[in-house]
Design goal:
Layout (H helix, E strand, L loop, with lengths): L3 E4 L5 H12 L3 E6 L8 H11 L3 E8 L3 E2 L8 H7 L4 E4 L1
Parallel strand pairs: 1-2, 1-5, 2-3
Antiparallel strand pairs: 3-4
Length: 92
């Protein structure tokens, strides 16, 4: 079973550092934060860096008014992470 983490604030700073470290350890990392547009924003770049380090980086947007949701249709990111392929081991 792969280890899965949900990292908030993953587009920069401490959150990005945590996401990159988990990626280097081979984790699947769900990255939330600002700056994802599917076209090379800061969160997209962080996910690509997770992938380059051997992990799996998956971006999601933080819907601040309604909580954290998946960009694919409103399902909570934590639900997708927990039920999308393994146990959710860490949340920042």
């Amino acid at each position: 079973m792969s280890k899965i983490a949900l990292v908030t604030g993953a587009s920069r700073g401490v959150g990005k550092g945590i996401a990159l470290a988990l990626g280097a350890a081979g984790w699947t990392v769900y990255l939330t934060g600002r700056g994802t547009d599917g076209n090379g924003g800061p969160l997209d770049i962080a996910a690509a860096e997770v992938n380059a380090r051997g992990g799996t980086g998956i971006t999601a947007e933080a819907a601040l008014e309604y909580g954290i949701t998946d960009i694919d249709g409103g399902q909570p990111v934590s639900h997708r992470a927990a039920f999308g392929g393994g146990a959710l081991f860490g949340v920042r």
